[in-house]
TrEMBL record, chains A, B:
<dbReference type="GO" id="GO:0002128">
    <property type="term" value="P:tRNA nucleoside ribose methylation"/>
</dbReference>
<dbReference type="InterPro" id="IPR002845">
    <property type="entry name" value="tRNA_mtfrase_aTrm56"/>
</dbReference>
<comment type="similarity">
    <text>Belongs to the aTrm56 family.</text>
</comment>
<dbReference type="Pfam" id="PF01994">
    <property type="entry name" value="Trm56"/>
</dbReference>
<feature type="compositionally biased region" description="Basic and acidic residues">
    <location>
        <begin position="205"/>
        <end position="215"/>
    </location>
</feature>
<dbReference type="GO" id="GO:0106059">
    <property type="term" value="F:tRNA (cytidine(56)-2'-O)-methyltransferase activity"/>
</dbReference>
<feature type="binding site">
    <location>
        <begin position="142"/>
        <end position="146"/>
    </location>
    <ligand>
        <name>S-adenosyl-L-methionine</name>
    </ligand>
</feature>
<dbReference type="InterPro" id="IPR029026">
    <property type="entry name" value="tRNA_m1G_MTases_N"/>
</dbReference>
<dbReference type="GO" id="GO:0005737">
    <property type="term" value="C:cytoplasm"/>
</dbReference>
<feature type="compositionally biased region" description="Acidic residues">
    <location>
        <begin position="216"/>
        <end position="225"/>
    </location>
</feature>
<dbReference type="InterPro" id="IPR029028">
    <property type="entry name" value="Alpha/beta_knot_MTases"/>
</dbReference>
<keyword id="KW-0489">Methyltransferase</keyword>
<feature type="region of interest" description="Disordered">
    <location>
        <begin position="1"/>
        <end position="21"/>
    </location>
</feature>
<comment type="function">
    <text>Specifically catalyzes the AdoMet-dependent 2'-O-ribose methylation of cytidine at position 56 in tRNAs.</text>
</comment>
<feature type="binding site">
    <location>
        <position position="101"/>
    </location>
    <ligand>
        <name>S-adenosyl-L-methionine</name>
    </ligand>
</feature>
<keyword id="KW-0819">tRNA processing</keyword>
<keyword id="KW-0808">Transferase</keyword>
Amino acid sequence: MNETREGDGETREADEGTRETGEVVVLRYGHRPGRDDRMTTHVGLTARAFGADRVILPDNAGQSAETVRGVTDRFGGPFGVELREDQKAIVRNWEGVVVHLTMYGERIQDVEGEIRAAVRADDGRAVGDRGGDARDLLVVVGGEKVPWALYERADFNVGVTNQPHSEVAGLAVFLDRLFEGEELDREWVDADRRVVPEATGKTVVDADDRGRGDTERDDGDAEST
Amino acid sequence: MNETREGDGETREADEGTRETGEVVVLRYGHRPGRDDRMTTHVGLTARAFGADRVILPDNAGQSAETVRGVTDRFGGPFGVELREDQKAIVRNWEGVVVHLTMYGERIQDVEGEIRAAVRADDGRAVGDRGGDARDLLVVVGGEKVPWALYERADFNVGVTNQPHSEVAGLAVFLDRLFEGEELDREWVDADRRVVPEATGKTVVDADDRGRGDTERDDGDAEST
């Protein structure tokens, strides 16, 4: 399971023909197999659901990668999942902006505007809109202790609260604020199925079915993968 | 560890003398010991960090309760942690508004204003401001499969995206939107220690130390409890 498959990220770039700028990538830094499996899976699923383009997981997190790929296959993308062993080098050599989420960092409410400005293209294109001279953004989410060099390399060390809580919670709120909620309206492509939002119900339809007819009851536990 | 200690919640109410309205309480519905320990702990820590007043955990989640109480002791409150076995009854008998977070629910961006209005006091007091005739809010976060009765009892079934991701991510974004970010500025009382937000550093000071002198290096892994 520890193969380094480039996955959907590379497929998408190949489809589009050119490398575009303005990509938002989440890097899970460190992973303890067994103990961290669910947290790492949830980091990957949260990155996907809240609008990142790709997640990079440590190469010993193959099981989490498979789970996230499976969700992307069923519920759509584009979303890339990569397994890489060179976490330090990815951070060191990143050509865009590096944000490190840590409870010791500057307050999200104080720096979120500055972060958006740092990645925004000169033509005013917002973060997440690809192309132009927008800068790529790497969001680093710690697992095990992260090296001091990461604090120094990061353009922004950001505290989503300065309280101990959860790297998954921090990532979700960071992305929701980064995209100013626009990630909630994104459309998913190449999905097999689609949840129909409703006041009382659990309705899942074929992704190409715009009506409500052909419903399917899905696993109620799908959220707690 | 499975004692039903009412904990800080009751202490706080006793301190204040009267039961106030407008409380925001998170209920973790279901818990599988071992498998769910970290997720349940993160639900509790996220509820605390993002402005809820209390978390109610299933009575088999004693270990998670101890961890959340320990963080509250060190980093401050007020925040209540309760272990209760009567999850169904808590939901059924709740006298205020019940929100159930589920990927099948209505879109958060469509209903968040309506939820704030449903709990708001007639004098316009915002959610989280206690007193007056504000209504209490119960936020139910599913673990294991939740019963259909919960979908029916909930005043709002809410999808923080209609994608599979993480109950911790959903709770964090829900609370951040519910409180419109104001939870990020809350002050903590009775804390032993306080993180000093900074661009590059890991500085923790005594909670009553407003300066930067007497610093202590804390465990860098504190966020991934």
